[in-house]
Amino acid sequence: MSPSPAKSLLSVSAVSKAFGDHQVLRAVDLEVARGEVVAIIGASGSGKTTLLRSLNGLETPDAGVITAGDVAVDFGALAAAKPSAADRQRAALRDKSAMVFQHYHLFPHRTVLQNVTEGPIVVQKRPREEAEREAYSLLKRVGLADKADAYPHQLSGGQQQRVGIVRALALKPALLLFDEPTSALDPELVGDVLLLMRDLAAEGWTMVVVTHELQFAREVATQVAFLDAGSVLEVGPPAQVLGEPREERTRQFVRRLTHPM
Ligand SMILES: Nc1ncnc2c1ncn2[C@@H]1O[C@H](COP(=O)(O)OP(=O)(O)OP(=O)(O)O)[C@@H](O)[C@H]1O
Ligand SMILES: [Mg+2]
Question: Is the CB–ligand 1 distance for residue 261 below 6 Å?
Answer without folding.
Answer: no
